[in-house]
From TrEMBL, chain A:
A biological-process GO annotation: platelet aggregation
Protein name: Acidic fibroblast growth factor intracellular-binding protein
InterPro entries the UniProt entry points to: FIBP
Any one annotated GO CC term: nucleus
Coiled-coil portions: none
Domain of life: Eukaryota
GO molecular function: fibroblast growth factor binding
Signal peptide start-end: none
Regions that span the bilayer: none
Amino acid sequence: MSVELDVFVGNTTIMDKEVYQLWLNGYTVNDAVTLRIEGGVMEECEVLLSDTMDQYRTFQMCERLLHHPAKLANQLLFQIPPDRQAMLIERYYAFDDLFVREVLGKKLSKGTKKDLDDVSSKTGVMLKSCRRQFDNFKRVFKVVEELKGPLVENIRQHFLLPDQLARDYAAIVFFANNRFETGKKKLLYLTFQDFAFCAGQLINNWTLGAVDNMMEDMDVDLDKEFLQDLKDLKILITDKDLLDQHKSLVCTALRGKTNVLNEMEANFKNLSRGLVNIAAKLINAKDVRDFFIDLVEKFIEPCRSDKWTSVDVNLYLTHYTNSAHILDTFKHHSVWTRYMGVIKSCILKMYHE
Amino acid sequence: MPGKLKAKIVAGRHLPVMDRASDLTDAFVEVKFGNVTFKTDVYPKSLNPQWNSEWFKFEVDDEDLQDEPLQITVLDHDTYSANDAIGKVYIDIDPLLCSEAATVISGWLPIYDTIHGIRGEINVLVKVDLFNDLNRFRQSSCGVKFFCTTSIPRCYRAVMIHGFVEELVVNEDPEYQWIDRIRTPRASNEARQRLIFLMSGELQRKIGLKVLEMGGNAVVGYLQCFDLEGESGLVVRAIGTACTLEKISTLPATATLPSNSSPSKDIKEPVFGEEGPGVPLSSGPPTPLRAQTFSSFSPSKSYSRQSSSSDTELSLTPKTGMGSGGSAGKEAGPLKALLRQQTQSALEQREYPFFTLTSFPPGFLLHLGGVVSARSVKLLDRIHNPDEPETRDAWWEEIRQEIKSHTKALGCHAVVGYSESTSICEEVCILSASGTAAILSSRFMQDGPLETDHRLSRQPLVFSTGSERVDGDMGSTASLGFEEMVPPGCEFCHIPYDELNIPFPAQLTYCCCCRRYKVPDVLFTTIDLPTEANITGKGCLIQARLCRTKKKAQGEGNAMAISNLLPFLEYELHTQLMNKLKLRGMNALFGLRIQISVGETMLLGLASATGVYLTALPSPGGIQVSGKTPSDITYEQHISNMQKKINDTIAKNKEVYEINPPEVVEEIIGSPIPEPRQRSRLFRSHSESSDEVSEIDLSHGKKDAFVLEIDDTDAVEDIHALLTDSPTPAGFYSCNTEIMPGIQNWTSAIQMFTSVRVFRLNNVNLTNQGLNKVFSDLCENLLKSLYFKLRSLVPCCLCHLNFTVAIPEDELIQVAVTAVAMSFDKELTLENGKQSGDKSLKKENDEQLQFNLELNAEMSSSNLSSPKGLTEVGSHPSAKDRCSSWIEQLRLKAHTIRRGSVKTTSSLEKASPLPEGRSRSLRSNRSYSGSSVAVVRMTPLSFIPGAKIIKYLGIINMFFIRETTSLKEEGGVSGFLHTFIAEVFAMVRAHVAALGGNAVVSYSMKECVFMENPNKNQAQCLINVSGDAVIFVRESEVEAASVHPQSAATQTSNGEGT
């Protein structure tokens, strides 16, 4: 005797959050049943099996709609209360930080998708789940690539995601588009949230949309004009007077406020050169990719080896930024502010003591 | 040319990609009605076309309007090859033909294709302009309202219940026509869908004509079925109950509702308006008031208009009755007999005194005899002339006659809760009909509306007109006689047959409620529990399941074998039911539905019912196990173990279902009837024989059903079956009737669902016992799954839990169930209880109120009418006073009602605490604004808890076929059926929303025929669903806001329609 067919359809579609999560995590029906039995929902295997299969089927049928969340609201096939719809979408688009860290900045191409089994075995996230997450990234990327207007807002409207999740996706899209290098050994200590924060800073300040959000070309690409202007900052390191003047201003201001003043003084020129060089090189796409690795190598590592605290870094960068404005021969105040504002918050976020 | 049908195609959305090259579609629409077709322009390269067409106008006969559906086909334009069909929408125009139903169909409807399922949606507008046609010989019956609901619909009042209407039409099944060999599956499916649409339209029109002939304006309890007879054709048949309904205007009621706190005059009106005398059931808790509103004293609108006709009518009937009065009911006295006589004569004029209703206006149902059923096995042959479906008609005629004669044997004159069904396997067909024999009041069956309140209010009037003195006298006595029949909650249990002439061996005792009339020891019925019934504890679902193997045979021999098996099957089902009933300590079954399904090598029987403990009936005895050879000691022990288990189960069940019959009360009264047997039976371990058996032509004879002899292997199985029935998990109740006896405070959370399972019996050589076990497990597991699925709704009750079994092919058993889970509030009762002192006090008060009314009504029997009441009489002295005059009695009554109404309204408020009500309405608001799709509720019940149905928009009757040739790709059989059922729900919801409705009530899935061929990767499924589209408003919303409920209603409907 065997069950040939077994379905349950409710007028209001019944969806169990727990089973949904198991499905999203990529468990097979049988594994899910085992986990549920262990979870103590119910002992009877048969009942659980039937329920789990049913739910899985429902999710599979819904998946098509979840690819275009706006459709979920005006489709007729499933009657799902709005709060449930929101839950379905949010969880479907949720991702594992571990996983995203692996693909962050990589091209969302078929090639990357092929390598997902490695990612899966490395992160412990099931391949099925990896694929879903990867496809989500790709889908969001494809949709917003073509759209005008603010990136986060576009994502939120098109995929009906909650604010934080939309921001994270914006970061992922942004990283993928600019192909930032995040996989180098030196960057491994950084979490996805660190990068997401930095991406937010870059999107809000360095893209074209940051200046004029009605522009055709939007938030995904950095403002070329601005990058061009960054070259002018080189004067800060090429002009010896200016560099010395800058150094003395900063050191005067810092006196008595920190324990690592000597190190700061000794390293000033190196650090300043590092930051300004990063700025000057950003016009090259290749150097954009190395933005984060550069930040770490040129600034964060020297500071860390000198045992600066976050407070020290903050102090230093604040005065470093402000002092430049007092320099009489330095003219590029707005570009400097726009550049250093982002650099400062990124470094602070990336500076793990 | 009495009608103009207008249709406008607005837009489409979510269309499938039809052109691979461009990933787009060039869609256009064909609109067809009858033989006329219109086309829209092609809207190029879009998946969301905006046609915004002109109004397409069809000028047609109203006969065609009733028969034909509007057919909308969406196609993809192709310059070089033939246009590809995307899908179709059939729109039933019928709801637009009735002035009281919907006025426009407007909304997004799914575009359906029988191979691909739903493929996008189309926005259409459909209207009908009807011209009045007074042609007497017309063939149409526009304007007759149809309801699937098996009670008087909520916002109507029954002026008259005319009786049984039936019709059947036959045709060749397109699937079996020669042309089917050369056409595509899609074409064949569409031909079938269209044909069935046409046939059911025609059927409905013909039934409507019969109703008009009878002078009615509506069909209630409309039940339409398809018989797919294969080679021999397609039969569409329907039965229903013709009624004259009158709309209760909700306007005055709701308008005065907010002023509840003002003096009694204001209160009286809503009492009438809100509940209406004809409304038999109310969605909320049956507070005492609701049970009694039919006798409310407030003047009704119809009174002045109709009183004259009922007067003349009254003056006539007693005269005819007088001659033969006094013979029938011994205890009832001549008055009752007279009334019975007159009803009988009214009924006898009808060919079939059958009623498809399962619940009735209070006072309509007088006595219940028991279940009557008839079955016959027929061999199908090709229907040669579709216009003369005589054979099928004759078959049903035969069965109905049999039912009629069974009814007579039970001393009854009518059948209520009547239904018909078939089971077909190859060329053998089992026709079944069943119902409950009953004696009805003449109140709703004569030419004038005889409402109780009319009689009461007319009283002074009659006395004052001297010229009509004789008539007046008669009238008054008749009224008196009638008053006596106001049910004290036990009357329907009293036996309708002659005690000395019992048609079957039954154990009669005196009614435990009134102690004046005889009642049987168990009562089986096919109807819902009457609202006025006195019950103890809660009810529960009881199922008997049986499987019998059968030899493969052909033709006549096969039919013979089946008809030989049938009686045994029924007998065993009956025994099982009886045992399970006893095991739960209950004494009555409601909503009994026995389904027998025939397959090539087996017969399947499934009986479902809701067991309750009727206070009026004696407490059931237990079950005694006995061995034939009581010599062996271990054996004895085994038996006594078994016995202990059974006794424990009974005790546990009594606790679970809160069955503690008021035995104490009996002692207080000092039982007026000296009856030692009554005492002893409480301790006796087994009770006597059952009734009902003979109605299904089975007599238990001398054999006592409740001594289970252990020597008998069958009996061992039976006992095991009894004890292995897994108990419902905590927090769950289940029933197959409309409402769960004993539960009242429903919350608004409802969840309708359909579940289908198919089992394959791999082991071919199963014995009967083995098969039984498999089948029983199948049902039990299905139930278990349901409970698990719906655990989030706990505490909740699965209502209308009806199983449908089928044997789709050899070795396959299919079980389908559609039901609704409704959660209820345990806390609420407690809170309420606390607010009015304490729980028990509150309950007592209610009962007391009820009792008062009963007492007043039943003037002559005021002392002994209810044992429960008697203990409480002291607390309410006025009830003790005997009223000497009618006027005084009326005053007292009016007074009580007024008090009752105050009480109810206040308790109603408590029942839905404001914060909760607010949040609920807020939530619903949000859901409307939050998603663009209107929420449509579906329920197999006739009501929606916590809500009021303000309009019936028409009947929904849809038939779909789905076929696939890529079964694996669609997720196997389960994936395929899951999608299809979801699609059917979606289409029902969309059509209801397009009519402006927000719910379907009395929804049912009549047919679910599933066929598969996994080897060919193919499957096909046919589903037929029906229900009533309605607009409802939340009770909290009605109370809270609406100054103009009407406008609020239109607002909601607008909001949802778009």
